[in-house]
Amino acid sequence: MARIELGKEGEKLAIDYLLTKGYKILEKNFRTPFGEIDIIAKDGNFIVIIEVKRRLSDKFGKPELSVNYTKQQKLKKLALYYISMLKKEYPVRFDVIAINDKKIEHIENAFF
Q1: What is the residue range of the signal peptide feature?
Q2: How far is 43 from 105, CA to CA, in rounded Å?
C-alpha cells in the first residue's frame, strides 16, 4: 500500500474512532502556510489537535514514536495559528492516534 493511501486510510479509521467516542470533527487535513494538522476536533470544552500515525508493522518502530520533539513544536505553532482564527479562546489538547495495522491506540494529552 502506498504511503499516501496508508495515511488517508489511517485518518479515516481515526475519524470513525473519534466519532464513536463522541468527538465533534471540526477540520480534516487543515492546511496552513506552515504545514498541516491531520484532525482538529472538539471534546467537551477542548479543541483537540490530533496527529495520526499509521504503520503496517513495528519494523520501523511504533507509529506514535514518530511524533518527535520537532513535530510536536510544529503542531503547537499550527495550533496557535488555528486558535487565532477563532473568535473565542478554548483550552487546547494534543492527542496522537497511533494505528498499527488496524489496531488503534489513542494517546490523550500526548504532549503539552
Answers
A1: none
A2: 17
